[in-house]
Write a structure and sequence with these properties.
This protein has three helices and four strands. It has 90 residues and is of the alpha+beta class. Strands 1-4-2-3 form a four-stranded antiparallel beta sheet. Strand 2 and strand 3 form a beta hairpin.
């Protein structure tokens, strides 16, 4: 995820896709929990901030958002017609 973040915005749903692309798929709640911990580490470490962004250009439309958005299950879903939640590198 760090490599992806170095390239630009990373949708929270992409954290889950990356985790489940490995040799063992995680249960949905476990994938979200681990993804949440990774995203929180990025934010707390000053590597990224949280924004709502649009597809396909990943244009920030709201933010930076507070870390409490990490606890919202909707933040971890794919959205194409409405802004999705993403980490944007500092």
């Amino acid at each position: 995820m760090r490599d992806d973040l170095d390239e630009g915005p990373v949708g929270f749903y992409e954290f889950i896709w990356t985790l489940n692309g490995g040799p063992s798929e995680l249960a949905p709640h476990d994938a979200i929990d681990l993804s949440r911990r990774i995203a929180r580490r990025f934010v707390d470490g000053g590597l990224a901030q949280i924004y709502a962004v649009t597809w396909p250009h990943c244009e920030a439309v709201e933010g930076p958002l507070g870390a409490e958005v990490l606890d919202d299950p909707e933040a971890w879903t794919v959205r194409e017609s409405t802004p999705f939640i993403a980490s944007i590198p500092n």
